[in-house]
Amino acid sequence: MSDDEQSESVDRRAASRMEGDAPDAEPDADAGQPLDALLAEERERAETNHRNWQRAAADLANYKRRVEQERSEQARLASAALVINLLPVHDDFGRAVETLDSTLVGPNWVQGVLAIQRKLAALIEGMGIEEIAAEGLAFDPTQHEAVGRQPGSENICLHVVQKGYALSDKVLRPAMVVVGDGSEPTSEGA
Questions:
Q1: pLDDT of amino acid 25
Q2: Strand 175-180 and strand 144-150: pairing?
Q3: Which pTM does this prediction carry?
């Protein structure tokens, strides 16, 4: 079929549609009523679809936010697990530095140990880890673990046996403390 024959067939079809399906100039009153009802029904369906789309968009935004929160929480917990494993090494360095004999302060290897201890402390601090304050404060079971009682002010942390650490207000390791039992200390130790 050539282009001329194809265009004539299209024109004939269009012409026949125009001649046979010509609508009346004035629609009947009865014919207008179903159109109004159909329009109202379609508007209701469009509004329902729009509300469903809005809910789906909100659900997607909530899902994305929840996934991002879970990812950040997992990263935070992974770093917390690493820190928990590093804390005993940090404590050992701290005890080694505290018990260091003053006559050994000069040698280079001692300066190296002190530098390593400072770097480890800076690393832990840089991760957002904070030491839990305990000595002289009221005993708080959410942050402290009582390992003994001695004469002294009641429920006051007298001595820290092992330091405690927290990450963003979440306790990684409670501070192990000796708590006062409320009796007066004896002067035997003086």
A1: 47
A2: parallel
A3: 0.56
Is residue 125 in some structural domain?
A: no
Q: Domain limits at 184? A: 130-190
Q: Which residue has the higher pLDDT, 146 or 2?
A: 146
The whole-number pLDDT of residue 5 equals 54
| Residue 12: pLDDT over 90 | no
Residue 119 lies in a domain: no
Residue among 99, 87, 85 nearest 162 (CA): 87
Domain assignment present for residue 45? The answer is no
CB 129 within 8 A of CB 172: yes
Q: Do residues 146 and 175 make contact, with C-beta atoms less than 8 angstroms apart?
A: no
Residue 76: burial class (beta carbons within 10 Å; 0-12, 13-18, 19+): middle
Whether residue 15 lies inside any domain: the answer is no
DSSP 82-103: HHHHHHHHHHHHHHHHHT--GG
For the cut 80, the answer to whether the pLDDT of residue 40 exceeds it is yes
Q: How many domains does the chain have?
A: 1
